[in-house]
Amino acid sequence: MSNFIAMNRFTFFTTAAAVTLLTLGGCSKQDAAAGGAQQRPGGVQKQVVEVTTIERRDMLETLTVVGSLEANESVQIRPEVPGLVRAIHFEEGQKVKAGDLLVKIDDAELLAQLAQVEARFRLAELNVARSENLSETRTIPQSEFDRARSEYAAVQAERAVLKLRLEKTEIRAPFDGVIGSRTISPGDVVTTATVITNLDDLSRLKISFPVPERFLAKVHNGTIVKATTRRAGRIEDNLTGEGEVYFVSATIDRATRSSEVKAVLNNPSPDLRPGMFANVEILLDTRNQVLTVPEGAILTDSRGTQIIIVGNKDGQPVAQYVPVTTGLRTRGLVEIQPRAGEIAPGTQVVASGVGALILFPGSPLDPKPLRARFAAGN
Question: Rounded to two decimals, what is the model's pTM?
Answer without folding.
Answer: 0.64
